[in-house]
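Q: Protein A?
A:
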Amino acid sequence: MTDVIVQEKELKSLVVNKLTEANVSKEHALVVADVLVHADSRGVSSHGVLRTEHYVKRMNEGGMNPNPDFNVEDRGKTAALFDGDNGMGHVITKEAMDKAIDLAKKNGIGMVGIVNSSHCGALSYFAEQAAKEEVVSMVMTQTDSAVVPFGGSEPYFGTNPIAYGFPAKNNKPIILDMATSNVALGKVLHARETGKSIPDNWGVDANGNPVTDPNLVKNLLPIGGPKGYGLALTVDVLSGILTGSAFGTNIATMYGDYNNNRRLGHVILTVDPGLFIEKDQFLENIDNMIDELHQLEPAEGFKSVMVPGEPEQLKEKERMNSGIPIPESIYEYLTS
């Protein structure tokens, strides 16, 4: 299937139009579009505008609240609980990150638990949001059961992604955003949409056998075997059990029960870089780390050593000039 090249401004406008047609406020639709296009511009199409149709379907069938009433309860000086009232997770997490940043700037650290949310998109967006304010961040979210645990034959945890953001003084921030499965489910969905095969370590079929046909994938595999399994458990404890949300196989599915709210949990931790040392020293040391890594001799087949998030940042710079490729079927939906 061929791609259509779309400029950033047009792509955001198309997403906003679709969401507002589903009774999402323009203010919230603009945030969601920003998060989705952020992903596509960085080459993370699994979390890009292809998700729009799903959000519209869930909104139209009553599984998300188009006019949420957010509630924030302070829990001491450094923590808060953010109730998203089952609105769009992108908006909820962005506002919760604003709160976490404020807590870190005032008190050195901040922690915000999020309840009654929905799918929030690429976590790198929120880690970058904090980095722009020169705040260190960690963001986690649970997802519905889709990953076979190490030693198991049926799924329990979701892809349960985690992201970290480390601001620098002169360089772009280090942004690590990763699923605890080998890949996010969205990458399998993108392969289905584009008719491409996948590596045999991404997912398994109904019998637990590795497959290269994305249409046969029933469950995913954890990254690094027991290590990814342990990380997935950690994410679910912190974003689910700690916040009072559902966990494991009790989490509502993304693709199904569209008339029910998913009530997802997320958790954000923010740290002022000047908590232990001078802030400028921290920022300069991150610069030094990045520069020293860049100076390392690359292995055969590599042009250079890059830091987490750098390939995506380079892709974003390129696509802001040349446009963003979108599968033709997705473009047709957005323009319909």
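Q: Protein B?
A:
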Amino acid sequence: MEMRELRYFVAVAEELHFGRAAERLGIAQPALSRALAGLEGRLGVVLLERSSRRVRLTDAGTVLLSEARAILAAAEAAARRTREAAERQPRIALAVKAGTAGELLAKVLDAYAAHPGACAVDLLLCEAHEQRERVCSGQADVALLHLPFDAVTGLDTEALLTEGQVVVLPGDHPLAGRTAVSQAEVTAAPGPPPARWPAPDGSCPEGPGVAVRNLTQLFQLIALGRATVVLPASAAVDLRRDLVAVPVTDAPPVTTVLAWLPESRSRPVADLVRVATTL
């Protein structure tokens, strides 16, 4: 398989439309169709079921989509690291879940910037399930993850912070004036069911609550009375004025960790981890 073919296939698989995919890639639609037909012929499988009305991924196509994304991401990461080595200006790519651990993250970045020999840190703001994937694919050198919510299998980790959880509610909610609540009280309170976050593979579990992918979206839905959520206290530091955060006394603690690939030999990553663990 050629990288060009994989890029073509990913575009069609994401758009599920040959015309839009060809426009996105900047090529003619017949050339795109021929390239994918050739790929299917060499693999000996059908990747896309085509009809006059729709394009649909087959089971084989679904597998190749996941593999192709990982291959393209790894190639991009390899090119980035190669350029950095040539420039002799190393950089760290740090994957973080947008809107979380803001105060801790700021302290870590400030402390590392003051460290002798510190290099530039590029922040990759991710949605709920993406940080580990970015590290495993090589797009990120290190990630901030939150246990027990994020999977850390296959990664080395260092714990930075353990904290309690809070329930985020509209300001007029019956529990909004409380100084603390229990999980049972949150469950029994009137209102919508808890929001559903993506699993590590990006899929949302089944359930009655609304599916969300980031905190901005979630807080908007809570303010509208469409969702509730229990999350780490640090994620609710800078809440909108129409929301309140109430500590949940018996919610399990959440531990924020730095995570990286075990085979990493990056001195800047080692320095960042060492500085962060002293805070």
